[in-house]
Design a protein that fits this description.
Length: 377
């Protein structure tokens, strides 16, 4: 009786619409997962291929950014005298008002103890000369393009009532944040804010072949309590955190989609009960128990969800691959290969089934109880 009833219900014209509605929702999840899988693979490959040098920075413990950090400048000479440290670069970072070519702008200025060493540490390409005294400066490539700065231009730097004039003697490209900054010797920033015996950060590296744990442990013992030591260029950790955050967002997005699936199943079950009330009443009249009616409604909804999720997984995966192929034809430099793992497809299928069953339980139980209450004694 259950099989015959389900066949009868599935022959109704709106069953295909119910399957398609769930399929479109599941297709969103499948395509999103497929694209995220590709991005995760690319991030892991980048982490294996790129092995940047390890550098460290010292900044104040209570600082929230480099701009508000204050570190004693004498720490730079203490760390520089250690036999296991490489370069040591004290830096003072501030925001100054720039006047150039009768235009006024605001930009970040970075004062460095050794401008040449700073550029070498970042493997920067330099067009021109290195700034050697407080009256010379090097402009980052992005800053130069934005403000139309050329070699030989003179820039007036001002902070409050203090101001100095520097000449741009070179433009550098480092592919880092420094490309939007004006790089000057630290004497220039001291003239702007006054020499107070402090800097924003101290950047240093360790020599090759040195036991890093032991070296960092010894350096930590030399530092005062009001500063902290941070390792930079932690590419693998950054990529891991990026993937973790992406997965968290994907899980939240999935919960929203499954909630919509549950709502769609509720609507489908309510519509089924309304449109098939005669058939369900006939089943009850020939002796079908309440449990049978509930099972029929749940089985119909679960089957619809299974077919819809299967179709949606196929549509989402194929759709993402077709879109990536079309994009590759339009822009050959873009190479995206989305794919869906088997365990992800199974997870989507099971969660879709669970959401659909949860969504249809209330109308199924409510209708079954109402039918029992309406039965004559």
């Amino acid at each position: 009786m259950l099989t015959l009833t389900l066949k009868m219900l599935f022959r109704r014209g709106k069953t295909a619409q119910s399957i398609l509605a769930i399929a479109l929702l599941v297709a969103i999840l499948a395509s999103t997962n497929a694209i995220v899988n590709h991005l995760s693979i690319q991030a892991e490959a980048l982490g294996r291929l790129v092995n940047p040098g390890v550098t460290y920075i010292i900044l104040s413990r209570d600082s929230t950014s480099i701009m508000d950090s204050r570190v004693e400048a004498k720490l730079a000479s203490i760390i520089g005298n250690l036999n296991y440290t490489g370069y040591v670069l004290p830096q003072k970072v501030l925001t100054a008002n720039l006047t150039i070519n009768k235009g006024k702008y605001t930009a970040r200025v970075r004062g460095v103890g050794d401008v040449s060493g700073f550029l070498k540490a970042r493997r920067a390409y330099l067009n021109g000369a290195v700034a050697k005294n407080w009256s010379e400066a090097n402009a980052g490539e992005l800053l130069a393009r934005t403000l139309s700065i050329s070699i030989g231009d003179k820039i007036c730097l001002a902070i409050g009532d203090r101001h100095i004039e520097v000449k741009v003697v070179g433009i550098f490209r480092s592919h880092m944040q420094s490309d939007i900054e004006l790089l000057v010797p630290i004497e220039a920033t001291n003239r702007l804010v006054g020499s107070r015996g402090d800097v924003s950060i101290i950047e240093f590296s360790l020599r090759g072949g040195v036991d890093r744990r032991e070296a960092i442990s010894k350096i930590m013992q030399l530092l005062p309590e009001n500063v902290k030591l941070v390792q930079t260029q932690q590419l693998k950790e950054f990529l891991w955190q990026m993937n973790a955050q992406t997965l968290k967002f994907l899980n939240v997005w999935s919960m929203a989609v499954y909630a919509v699936v549950a709502a769609a199943s509720y609507i489908n079950a309510t519509r089924l009960i309304t449109e098939s009330s005669y058939e369900l009443s006939m089943l009850r009249a020939i002796g079908a128990k309440k449990r049978i009616v509930i099972v029929i409604i749940l089985a119909y909804t679960a089957t619809t969800a299974f077919l819809g999720s299967t179709l949606g997984i196929s549509l989402g995966t194929a759709g993402a691959q077709i879109a990536s192929t079309a994009l590759r034809w339009i822009r050959p430099s873009v190479d995206i290969t989305p794919f869906l793992k088997a365990e992800q497809a199974l997870k989507i299928l099971l969660l879709t089934l669970a959401s659909s069953i949860i969504g249809c339980m209330y109308p199924a139980f409510r209708y079954a109880n109402r039918m029992c209450a309406e039965q004559p004694l």
